[in-house]
Write a structure and sequence with these properties.
Blueprint lengths: L1 H4 L2 E2 L2 E2 H22 L8 H26 L8 H17 L2 H10 L4 H32 L3 H18 L11 H9 L12 E5 L6 E5 L1 H25 L5 H24 L7 H21 L5 H22 L13
Antiparallel strand pairs: 1-2, 3-4
Helix pairs in contact: 2-6, 2-10, 3-4, 3-10, 4-9, 4-10, 4-12, 5-9, 6-9, 6-10, 7-9, 7-11, 11-12
Amino acid sequence: MLDILFSDFAGQPVWMWLGFLAFVVLLLAFDLGVLNRDDKVLGVAESFRLSAIYIVIAMLFGGAIWWGLGERPDGTSPALDYFTGYFIEKSLSIDNVFVIALIFRYFAVPPAFQYRALVWGILAAVVLRGIMILAGASIVQSYGWVLYFFAAFLILTGIRMLVAKDEGAEFKENWLVRFLRRHMRVTDGLHGNRFLVRREDAASGRTLLHATPLLLALVVINVADIIFAVDSVPAILAITTDSFIVYTANIMAILGLRALYFALAAMIDRFHYLKYALAIVLVFIGGKIYWSHLVGKVDSALALAVTLAIIGGGILFSLWKTRGHNAPDLPPAH
């Protein structure tokens, strides 16, 4: 048994992976079972306080990586890569909050039930992002040229974000929702915080299991999270192919985002100019790959400093330019 725990898995001992997953499960259990057991509406102030706790936990975890893993043989720091990946993932996720809010609005999910759905959504993200990251890191390590493809993808994505025009956002019933409604029995309305309920079937007269709109919202949010990861995972893999660092940075950022969701959803318009900063970061990260391979390696501390400066500048500029703005109205509920 001890041999298995100390055996290597994706570059780190198995016990480190199991320890991190156990840590995430404990956080979610405490969050869902203690802090939000009564499905209360999470206010903006409380959202900021809970998010601050998650940020502190993420920073302490980064400190543990710094202390425990030290430097790699090539002189790079896993901790600096973790912090860079964490801040990039955190910032990219802010732009996704409005989409999640639109999904909840479409399915008429009240704020009291939104947090519970988001926390359960993390469980799926832990698995799905793990698969994407392990597969991506394995491909990059086996076929180094793929990293150039990731770099080009990030640069093109950043340029597209810079030149794209703002359009009114509206969630429409897509193929996924239509597929779920055709192949699942779905209730007309919510049933508290329940994802599944037993109802009498009008055709057969039997009591059958039905999905609620809350379950549909959860499925759509997790599919959207996979789409969001198409940008964020290559961005972190462009920093490091250390699967453990990429995965932990991703998951720690996602954990904190769920806590910050209600505050961000209330003031998402205040971050209007952040997308331009994120676009510059993606171009910078992509360009760093080509620079490192063609000219010389970029110091990890410098890369982290530049990333923080760009993101911090984007946030401060957004808050300054949008001072006095009120939160935008969301489309009517479906």
